[in-house]
Amino acid sequence: MSAPEAATGPLRKPVLVVQHTEVGAPGAVLPILQSLGAQVHLLRVVDGEPVPADPSPYAGLVLMGGYMGVHDPIPWIAQELELIRRADALGIPVAGHCLGSQMLAYALGGSVRKHTQQEISWGEITAESGAAAGEWLGEYAGRTLETFQWHGDTFEPPPGAQRLASGRYCANQMFSVGGKHLLVQSHLEMDPALIELSLARNGALLEREVALGNPAAANRAETLREMPARTARMHAILRRLYTRWLGLAV
User: Fold this and answer.
1) What is the model's pTM?
2) Per-residue pLDDT at 4
3) How far apart are CA 242 and CA 26, in angstroms?
4) Coil, strand or helix: which one is 215?
5) Which helix (H) or strand (E) holds 182?
6) Would you say 162 and 152 are in contact if contact means Cβ atoms under 8 Å apart?
7) What are the structural domain ranges in the chain?
8) Considering the domain 15-246, what is its CATH architecture?
9) Phi and psi dihedrals of 188, rounded to 5?
C-alpha cells in the first residue's frame, strides 16, 4: 500500500501534542501537522497541565522528548503510559519523538535502558529499503539521512515492530508498530531556535562528551553549522512521516 499524499480531509478531532520540558518543545511538529489539515491541542505537562485519562477525544497523540526516563517515579509518566495503551486499544495512532518514542515502545511491550553512550548533535541514520519504509518514508527509503540527536537512553521495540531506520551509534532509530504507531529516536522536529536553546541549557553536557572522545557527539561549532538548511531537510522527512501518520488518524 502506498502512503497517502495528505490527510484524507479535515479530521473530526484534534491531534494531542504533549510537551514535557522547555527544551522538548514541538518545534516543526505543530506547523507540519497544521499544514496537513490537522487541528492541534498542545498539552504542556511542563507547566503542570494534567495528562488526560481518555484518548478518545483525539485523532492521534504525539509525545515529545524530555530529559527524564520512562522508569523515573514521576506521576505523569505512568499516566502517559496508560494513555498510550488506551489509545492503542482504540486504534488511535501515537507518534513519539526521543523520550516519546521510548515511552511508546515501553507501553506496548518493548523495553528502555541506558545506552552505551550519549548520542548528541548531528549524525546519520540509514533508512530501510523495504515495503514498510517505502510506505512511511517514500523517496527517503533506502537513503542515508542526517538527523539531530540528544539522548542517553535507547529502546527495544515491541514485538512485531517494523524497522524503518537504524544508526551507527544507536541501532534502534525509527520503527512503526501495528502499521499505525511511529517511533522516532531522532529529533526531526528541531529548528535553529531549539538547537540554540538546547546548547544554552545543556551545552556543558555536549562539551563533556566531546572532551571524553565520544564519537557520537559533535562539537559546538559543528552543531551550529548550517542550521537552517539542515533542519529544513529534516522537516521534509518529518512531513513525509506525518503525511502517512495522519492518513491513519481516526
Assistant:
1) 0.94
2) 39
3) 13
4) coil
5) strand 181-184
6) no
7) 15-246
8) 3-Layer(aba) Sandwich (3.40)
9) -65, -15
